[in-house]
From TrEMBL:
Database matches in InterPro entries: AAA+_ATPase, ABC_transporter-like_ATP-bd, ABC_transporter-like_CS, P-loop_NTPase
Organism the protein comes from: Maribellus comscasis
Annotated ranges, domain ABC transporter: 2-239
Alphabetic keyword roster: ATP-binding, Nucleotide-binding, Transport
Name this protein carries in UniProt: ATP-binding cassette domain-containing protein
Pfam family, one: ABC_tran
Gene Ontology molecular function terms on file: ATP binding; ATP hydrolysis activity
Membrane-spanning parts: none
Length: 250
């Protein structure tokens, strides 16, 4: 579980996050949604410890990130898997090389152990063996995202952070990726936080949804509650997508 308490973050006097509190439970897909510029990425990076916050607390289970020393933060980051926007695979390394990369960097596993772990992760994201030796440019966008997810879970993380994991994908493939993240979250009981503006993702996997509006917590609830809420800011966000406006009968 990750807990954020009364978090404030500003850049040169520009207050970007104001008094944000939220709980992200493990075994659940926790979504952070909001308009462009609302502060989602700053919140994610603050939780990751990439930004120093002005005020507040960030708890990883019983560990307070804001009280940790540099070494402890580094150690804890190894418990975090990241899926970056666009996948961010290494172009010059094969599919299996990309997944092996964190194992080479952070473990003392034998070659055989690494091979087995790479296979395990790639099989879990439904990449077939014949694709293991291909390069990122030789596989589809959806496959690239799956490889990026396999790489993110290689070190068996407790926490999984995904920044717009299905951007640039067609809606069907995007749903496959969303569902894959959800099933891995359940199987490995990770605390998963996903930044997205995609209402399809909200409806598919929004077990817990945090809506950020101009740096403040605007609303929180589930995918079922979001279609029933009277919160004006949430509705304005949803109604920007005509399909969901229809679903809400507006
Ligand atoms: N390193 C930084 N220095 C100064 N200001 C920043 C920095 N990072 C973000 N901001 C500001 O913080 C605000 C929120 O940005 P943020 O990237 O969190 O938005 P977002 O909700 O993730 O948007 P998008 O959905 O478009 O990615 C913006 O006004 C942005 O200019």
């Amino acid at each position: 579980m990750i807990e954020v308490k009364n978090l404030y973050k500003s850049f040169e006097g520009n207050e970007v996050l104001k008094n944000v509190s939220a709980t992200f439970e493990n075994g659940k897909t926790n979504l952070i949604i909001g308009r462009s510029g609302s502060g989602k990425t700053v919140l994610l990076k603050s939780i990751l410890g990439l930004f120093e916050i002005d005020k507040g607390e960030i708890w990883y289970n019983d560990r307070n990130l804001t009280q940790m020393g540099e070494k402890e933060v580094k150690r804890m980051r190894r418990e975090i898997g990241m899926v970056f926007q666009g996948g961010a695979l290494f172009d010059s390394i094969s599919v299996e090389g990309n997944v092996r990369f964190p194992l080479d960097m952070f473990t003392r596993m034998s070659s055989k152990e690494k091979k087995e772990r790479v296979e395990f992760c790639l099989e879990h994201v439904n990449i077939e063996k014949h694709a293991f030796s291909l390069f990122p440019s030789e596989i589809s966008g959806g496959m690239q995202k799956r490889v990026a997810i396999a790489r993110a879970i290689a070190l068996n993380p407790k926490y999984l952070f995904c920044d717009e994991p299905n951007s640039g994908l067609d809606p069907e493939t995007a749903t496959v990726i969303d569902k894959l993240i959800q099933s891995l979250t359940k199987e490995f009981q990770m605390t998963t936080i996903i930044n997205t503006h995609d209402m399809n993702s909200v409806i598919e996997i929004g077990e817990s949804v945090l809506f950020i509006s101009k740096g403040e917590k605007g609303w929180e609830g589930t995918k079922h509650e979001i279609l029933k809420t009277d919160n004006k800011k949430v509705n304005d966000f949803i109604f920007a997508n005509k399909l969901y406006a229809q679903m809400k009968g507006k």
